[in-house]
Task: inverse folding
């Protein structure tokens, strides 16, 4: 499926005017950043970079796209001609997927002619805003879970394709698996799931349902024990599966209280190895509140795929520098009330203290070679910008299943590097300040 | 693109067990409903029905799907054989798209064998939960706008494919157009958009940018006047385009105050017909607060595509009746704490008072023929269930661009029919109570 029409109309109308007035070829630098984090977040988690890169080669205007654009009179013939040959041939740099980010972090920088870079705004932002919203929420959940596995089960509460991206983003931020089969296939994620209440209700009684499930899936399965009465459900589960039952799932009621009761019952029945998994409107706070309960894993749905209070990030795609009439690259910035942007082609690094923990986000503005030299000469700076696309060619290490696995590893390191207070769930300041430095 | 793997793994593992124990063929009735609305909503708006029906024929397990399921050992060979031949051959009834709904409204009812109906849970819920979340928010926005056009511009703040669904759902709830080109193409929606700040910044100065845009798009275009100073921007806009300029757009600052100032300035310049469109973090409350301001249209983004505080609906897909060992259809229900379901194959009607306004949501449980006769004999009941799929065949009037247009008309009627208090934005009770009636 092509992605070229997943685009706001104004990108094409701007292109038409720029092709006509000769500015379409001006070299431009667009920067993706967010102005602020939700008040209760101390860091954001970048996700979706790999998906942007996977989608980039599909951003082509095919014959049927062009036909519709012509018929709907979106743009003129000259613009249609340009679009017919469209290929992104520029450069994309940015934070590697899984990195923490902060206000003003230039998480992605797209360079090319105005024509080729302006068209990517909507696609880039759609992917990064949604995926990062999910990953930023997911990271707080896996942090609150303190090592107990978190499992993604939110597909039904997200658009059917967004659900696949959500499963991927959750994995980047430490989730152990997903219920979503397509995410399992496409990104090599572990898939999980055994039965819903409907399976119990389908059968003449709970015992018959459990027998059927154990016969089909073995006694290592997870039995859902709260369709009727939890105590009777646990009793029947062990009667049917024996003390080797893999797990029971609780999906209702006061999970903390029930987990204690069920653990006691399982132990009394001799099922000391049977685990307890809980699902039901969990978020990072509910997970934290269950820390002392005998829960073995968390299934998280709604709150995960909707970003736990922040269903999108506020990332924007702003022109920060462009070739002027002289042919030189010049910084540009708007001065709109409360929505200013800062001009200049920037790079970024994380300043690391003597204890190995992050101290500041350092954004560096200046000529590319000077910035690179300065960052590499500074022992306390970890450079954040990586080459993602060079001369239009995507660097394959960021995409597909290997890209996702690497991003998950990277997120763990990036989060471990943050100051200790960064994992607090309470409202408060961002974990590290952002400082800006101009070299010239 | 196939949709069969946009599914939670447990649906397939349940299927495997049911195929093995002989219950897979039991006739089942699954019901989609929500337990509650967000506290500040007096009604919900059903959207996505047409999309469910469009996606249903693509729910096929193709060779590559089956190959992956086998390789990942999700299900056994017998189940793979069943999936290879999977076609939904059952019935789907439900509320027509655009209807208002309330807690417990049975907005969709899926009937078929357990095997064929259980597999649709995730896809049906993903579509209805997201699309209805957007439409429910959108309806409050168009209501608050009181006839001024609302335009959808939120693609960048939603997953790239969800953005298309959001534009469609917004249109169902009264939006006049969208920035999203794919939504324009697929559903015949009007597309809008002229220029971003980047276009002004690309040029050597604002006047040059405006000249270029007017040369390309004509003086009926909308010029974005807040890149630098709004007063100077408006002055330049009229200098360049003349007093016949179509509109100016304000995207920052205090929109209410600015609209007054800009209106006065435009009138003084003689541009009395030039409209003012505003964009910038609008939601239903911001729109309501601008009711007395000289604003001509609203562009809405983030809050629309994220459901303005409720980014998903809480719709669930519950087994409410199934064929028992005797071969008779029997109501079934779970009794889990705070998550009970009500058994029985139900229909629904809206009770209308003498003033033509809705009085109650009436859910009727009983034999299909008796329910139908009772509803049609009751002069004050408007039946809500429509046939959507019969013997596996989708009724074409609900899908595509015609389906969306009909849903938008229907929503307007359904909203007009609600009690007058239903449009209040404040927190409060749902607009009408839900009552349940059992015939036998």
Result:
């Amino acid at each position: 499926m092509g992605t070229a029409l997943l685009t706001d109309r104004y990108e094409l109308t701007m292109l038409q005017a720029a092709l006509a007035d000769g500015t379409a070829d001006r070299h431009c630098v667009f920067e993706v950043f967010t102005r602020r984090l939700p008040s209760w977040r101390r860091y954001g988690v970048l996700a979706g970079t790999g998906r942007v890169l996977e989608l980039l080669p599909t951003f082509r205007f095919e014959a049927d796209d062009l036909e519709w654009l012509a018929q709907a009179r979106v743009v003129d013939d000259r613009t249609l001609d340009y679009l017919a040959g469209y290929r992104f041939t520029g450069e994309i740099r940015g934070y590697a997927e899984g990195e923490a980010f902060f206000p003003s972090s230039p998480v992605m920088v797209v360079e090319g002619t105005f024509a080729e870079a302006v068209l990517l705004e909507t696609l880039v932002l759609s992917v990064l805003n949604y995926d990062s919203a999910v990953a930023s929420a997911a990271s707080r959940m896996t942090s609150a879970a303190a090592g107990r596995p978190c499992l993604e089960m939110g597909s039904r509460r997200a658009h059917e394709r967004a659900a696949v991206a959500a499963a991927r983003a959750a994995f980047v931020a430490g989730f152990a698996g997903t219920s979503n089969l397509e995410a399992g296939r496409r990104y090599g994620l572990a898939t999980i799931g055994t039965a819903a209440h409907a399976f119990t209700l389908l059968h003449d009684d709970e015992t018959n349902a459990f027998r059927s499930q154990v016969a089909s899936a073995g006694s290592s399965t997870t039995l859902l024990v709260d369709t009727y009465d939890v105590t009777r459900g646990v009793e029947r589960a062990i009667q049917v599966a024996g003390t080797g039952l893999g797990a029971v799932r609780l999906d209702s009621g006061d999970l903390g209280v029930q987990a204690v009761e069920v653990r006691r019952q399982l132990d009394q029945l001799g099922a000391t190895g049977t685990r307890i998994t809980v699902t039901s409107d969990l978020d990072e706070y509910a997970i934290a509140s269950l820390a002392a309960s005998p829960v073995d894993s968390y299934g998280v749905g709604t709150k995960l795929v909707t970003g736990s209070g922040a269903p999108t990030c506020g990332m924007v795609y702003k022109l920060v520098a462009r070739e002027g009439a002289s042919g030189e690259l010049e910084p540009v910035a708007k001065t709109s009330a409360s929505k200013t942007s800062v001009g200049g082609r920037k790079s970024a690094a994380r300043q690391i203290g003597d204890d190995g923990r992050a101290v500041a986000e350092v954004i560096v503005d200046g000529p590319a070679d000077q910035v690179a030299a300065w960052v590499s000469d500074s022992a306390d700076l970890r450079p954040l910008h990586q080459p993602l696309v060079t001369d239009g060619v995507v660097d394959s290490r960021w995409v597909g299943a290997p890209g996702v696995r690497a991003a998950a590893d990277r997120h763990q390191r990036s989060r471990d590097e943050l100051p200790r207070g960064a994992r607090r769930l309470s409202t408060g300041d961002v974990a590290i300040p952002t400082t800006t430095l101009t070299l010239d």
